Amino acid sequence: MIAANLLKVALKAMNNNKMRCFLTMLGVIIGVGAVIAMLAIGQGSKNSIKAQISEMGSNMIMIFPGSENRGGVRQSASDMQTLKPADYEALSREAQGILYMTPTVNGSGQWIYGNNNYPSQAQGVNTQYLDIRQRTVSEGEMFTEEDVRNAAKVCVLGKTLVENLFPDGTDPIGKVVRFGKIPMTVIGVLDEKGYNTMGQDQDDLALVPYTTVMKRVLASDYLQGIQASAVDENRTQETISEITDILRDQHRLREDQDSDFTIRSMQELAEMISSTSSMMTVLLAAVAGISLLVGGIGIMNIMIVSVTERTREIGLRMSIGATGRDIMMQFLIEAVILSVTGGILGILIGALATWMISIFANWPVAISTTSVVLSFAVCTIIGIVFGFYPAAKASRLDPIEAIRYE
Predict the structure, then answer these.
(1) Contact 231, 60 (CB under 8 A)
(2) Which SS3 state, helix, strand or coil, does residue 109 take?
(3) 376 SS3 class
(4) Contacts for 347-351: CB closer than 8 Å, 24+ residues apart
(5) What is the pTM (predicted TM-score) of this model?
(6) pLDDT tens, position by position, 93-116
(7) Which of these, 121, 207, 313, 324, could form a disulfide with 156 (CB 3.0-4.6 Å)?
(8) pLDDT digits over 332-373, tens only?
(9) How far is CA 90 from the centre of its chain?
C-alpha cells in the first residue's frame, strides 16, 4: 500500500467511529490546553515582574542597616542604627560609580485633610529619588535641596492619597494637610503607577524631605536605608564593592569583622524572582503534562480495542498482499492523526483559555512560540509512542487466524 492509501484507510476507519475518536482526543486536548495556559501564565508573570524591575531601574542599589546574620542571630534591619547621614555624605563624596542617591526614612501614620483621613506613610527622601525610581511629578513640583536642608514641611502626594484626602476633586496643590499633628503643604502630585505584580499600590505614598521625617516625625539621627543608581548597569557589582569599601572604612571595621550593613541590587532581586517564577512555571507545566500522559494512555487503549475489533479486516488485507509493515503504518497513522489533531485543538483551546484569563482575571499572560512548538512535538511523539504497541500487535497477526477470528 502506498502512503496515500494508508492515510485514506486510516481516515475512513476514524470516520466510522467519530464519537470514540473525539473522546480519545479529549485527553490530549485538555492536556495541551492546560500546558499552554499554565506556561502562558508563568511567562506572563515573569515578563511583568521583569518589566516592573526595569521600570525601577536594573542598576538600582539598596543599602540597609544591619547584617543579615550577625553573631549567629538574624536581626531585623529596623532594629539596627548603623547607617547615619554621615555615611550618605561619605558616599556622595567618594563613590565614583554612583549616579543618583537618596537616604530613605519612613514614618507611618494618618494623613488628614478636613474630615478626610487615610493611613499611609511619609517616605523621607531627597530630590534624586525621582531619578532613581524613574517617576515624575504630574502636577505641581518636587521639593528642592533647600527644602531638604531646612527640613521644610512640604510633601508630594501619590494618586491614592489625593483621591482619599480630596474625594471631591479639589486641587490639592497649595493645600495644608496633616501627618499626625504635623502640618505639611502639598506642593506636587506624583504620576500614577497603579498596582505592581506583588499587589502593592505604588501610588499609596507621600514623599517628604528625609530631614523633615527624621527631625519632625521620627526624632531620630539614623537612616533606615540608602537607595542609589549605578552609573552603568554593567558596573553595578563594581559599584557595590566600592560602596562596601567606603562604608566599612567609615564604620572603622576590621578585616575580620562582618559588615554592619547589607547591600542588595535589583539584578540580584530580578535573578531570584526569575528563578522562582521559572520553577513555578515548570511545576505547573508538569502538573498539566500529566493530562497529556493520560491522553496518550487513552490513545493506546482505544487503538488496542480497534485492533481487536478489526482483526478480520487485518487478516483480509494481509491475505491480498498487505505486509506487516503496511498494517503497522496504518495503525500508527491513525494514532498520530488522533494525537496531532487533539494537539491542534488543544493549542486553540489553550490560547482561548489564556485570552479569557487575561480578560476576566486580569492576569499578565504571554504565549510563547516555544510552548506551542513543544506541545505540538510532544503530541506527535505521544501518537507514535503510544500507538506503536497496538500497531506492532496488529502487524504480527497471523492472516489465517485473523480471518477465522470471531
Answers:
(1) no
(2) strand
(3) helix
(4) 347/32, 347/33, 347/36, 347/372, 347/375, 347/376, 349/29, 349/30, 349/32, 349/33, 349/36, 350/32, 350/33, 350/34, 350/35, 350/36, 350/37, 350/40, 350/375, 351/36
(5) 0.61
(6) 999 999 999 999 999 999 999 999
(7) 207
(8) 888 888 888 888 888 899 899 889 988 887 788 888 787 788
(9) 37
